[in-house]
């Protein structure tokens, strides 16, 4: 995941903030054209900060799971340890 492919937006219904992808994916028709341009923006900084904060908050749990060689590390961390992967409250990506 490239953080600078996302920007922070407000959900028009719930007013909650969420990260929305604005960059095309490799399989999209416009991808080759899009890659010809360089975009620099600080718009991804809130996502980077959010990810770093999650990692810092759950650092001990992350190391514990890695040490145990958990088979489904991502699922366990997301669902069991942090409870961050509940039902989505934001709009799906286009």
Keywords:
extended; two-stranded antiparallel sheet; 2 strands; alpha+beta; 94 residues; 4 helices
If you had to describe this structure to a student in words, what would you say it looks like?
Helices cover 37% and strands 11% of the residues. The chain has 94 residues and is an alpha+beta fold. The chain has one domain (3-81). A two-stranded antiparallel sheet has the order 1-2. Helix 3 crosses helix 4 (73-81). It comes from Mus musculus. This is Protein canopy homolog 1. Pfam families: DUF3456. Belongs to the canopy family.
Total of DSSP H or I helical runs spanning 4+ residues: 4
Which range best describes the helical content: under 10%, 10-25%, 25-40%, 40-55%, 55-70% or over 70%? Answer: 25-40%
Tally of extended strands?
2
- Shape call: extended
**Percentage of residues in DSSP E strands:** 5-15%
How far apart the termini lie comes to 16 Å
Low-confidence stretches: none
In round numbers, the mean pLDDT is: 75
Kindly name the structural category. alpha+beta
The strand order across the widest sheet is 1-2
Radius of gyration: 16 Å
What number of structural domains do the residues give? 1
Order of helices and strands: EEHHHH
Main sheet, how many strands, which sense, barrel? 2 strands, antiparallel
């Amino acid at each position: 995941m490239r953080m600078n492919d996302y920007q922070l937006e407000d959900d028009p219904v719930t007013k909650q903030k969420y990260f929305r992808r604005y960059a095309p994916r490799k399989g999209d028709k416009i991808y080759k054209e899009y890659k010809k341009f360089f975009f620099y923006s600080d718009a991804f900084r809130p996502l980077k900060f959010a990810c770093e904060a999650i990692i810092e908050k759950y650092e001990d749990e992350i190391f514990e799971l890695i040490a145990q060689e958990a088979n489904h590390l991502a699922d366990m961390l997301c669902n069991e340890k942090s409870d961050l992967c509940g039902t989505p409250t934001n709009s799906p990506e286009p």
